[in-house]
Structure formats: C-alpha cells, structure tokens
Amino acid sequence: MKKFFLAFVFFLLIVVVVLSFGELETILKTLQRAHLGFLFLAILVQLIWFVSSGRMYQSIFHLLGIHDTVLELSRIATAATFINIVAPTAGVGGVALFASEARKRGHAVGKVTVAAALFLLLDQASFLVVLSIGLFILFRRNDLNPGEISASLFLLAIAVSYAFVLYLGYRSEQKLGNLLAKAAHFLNRIFRFFRKDDYLSEARAHEFAREVADGFSGITEKKSSLVRPILWGILDKTLLMVILIFSFLSFEVPFTADIIIAGFSLTYLFLIVSPTPSGIGIVEGLMPIALSSLGVNWSQAVVITLAYRAVTFWVPLGVGAWTFRSLHAESEVKNA
To answer: Global pTM?
Structure first.
C-alpha cells in the first residue's frame, strides 16, 4: 500500500513536470524575480497560524470548563498536525494525542476528546463559510464546474456527519454507543475478507460514547459560545490566504481578491477531500489548474503552488515533528 501511495504521488509529480516542461523558460524567469523577503513573511504568518489554532482550541476547551494556556495548546495542536500527516486517520490520530496529553495534565479524557472532535467540526464549519464565498465568486465568473460542486457537497456531508455524531452523544450516550457499535460491526464484516480478527472493537464504541457524554456534561457556557471558535477558525483561513498573497508577491505575479479567495477555497477543498495525507500530490497537481482557471499564467501558477505548499505543508510538518518529539521527551522526563 505504501509503495502504491509513493508511486501515485510520483506519477502526479511527473504530470506536473511534463505539463510544465514546455514553459520551463517562463518558470525560470519567474523564479529569477523571487523576493525572499515575502517568503520569510509567509513563514512568519504560518507561525502566527500555529498560535491562532491554539487560541481556537483554547476557546473550545474553555467552553467545556478546561483551562489551559495558548502556548501549550498550540504545541499539542502543532504536534497533532504532524501525527495526522504521518498517520492519516481523518483527524483521529490528533484526537488521540490530545487525549494522551490530557491524562498527563490531569484533565478528564472525555472532555478533551469532545474538545478535539469539536475542533474538527468547527474548523470545517469555518471553512464552509469561506468556501461559500469562493463558490459564489466562481459562479459569478462562470467558472463553477460539477467537480467543485460535488467536492463541496462531499465536504458538507462530512461536516453534517460529524455534527450528527456529536449531537447524538450530547443527547444520548446509549444511542451514540449503539450507532458506533453497529458501524464497527459493519466494518468488521467487511474487513473479515482480509483478516481474521476484528478491526474495530464494539465494546470500545460504547466506551467512547460514554467519554463523549461525560465530556458534554462539563459545558459551562451557552451553546452560542460556539460562534467564538468559528471566528477563530475563519481567522485561521484568513492567515492562510495571506500566505497565498505573499506567494504571489514573492514572484511579482499580479492578483485580485477574487483569485485569492477562490484559489484558496479550491485548494483547501482539495486538501480536505483528498485521499492522501494533507493532500500531498493531489494539491500540487490540482492547485495550478485552479489558479490557471482564474486567469493566472500556468508557469506562474506552478511556482506559486510550490511556494505556498512549502510554507503551509513542509513548515508545519517540520515544526510538528520537533514539537511532537519535545512532548515525548517531556513525558519521558516525568516518567523517569
């Protein structure tokens, strides 16, 4: 499976190179105009994004009666990003990391699990706000196609599913446990074609439902306070758009607000619905196409894509690896 994944990514990279070979001279000229100062500013904005994500987590934790510092939550969130890249499980790996850190800090695991799950839901909700603006721009420009509509509906379905599971856990522990147990049973029947033992534990489904119910029992504020983390989520997306602006400025490529909003919306949409971790290979292949459809020269779109992904993918991957290692080292010191 890993070999197939690497071959697939390599194939996509070859496609980008082949399509770009005819404009290699234009790409080189674009690179010669590079202003590294704007790239450094983009990296600085990315670092601010880490803190903003931590602040979003803090607002959700506060809603559940858990008080932690922005710095600590930013560190865990950054490490969770790394985990979700190297072990992609639809964000579950990051939730498990938060639960593990909760035990070390003496917090209720159920509350932290709910907080991390709420983050995934509200992060998607905040992006849907931005995406709706991007889709409107594409519709106004007559650039909206069925593929983008289908991907948007798929994302909406994921968000609705998350919301339904969390709402069910808030209303009834038993109903959520039964639902998750049935889902685990169904998946186990499928996986028995490939392995003899159960892939998922039905007993663990009921245990998880109990943790979710216990987590919701600690809500200390009105449900309307969920608006606050959504606003922080929108700020997160705005910071990523600022990084895209700096990517344009780095190579003196002209842009408009429509290009930035619509281009970012499509790129982030590809990232979420992509079958690869953090859209690696997929985004690099599709982002130049999206920018080109918005009027950006193809060769310039390729260079902008590589610069944007260098800041928003490789920088978080590197910082996340370092943060995860530091959290692990602290745990070893405490256990020594």
So the answer is: 0.82
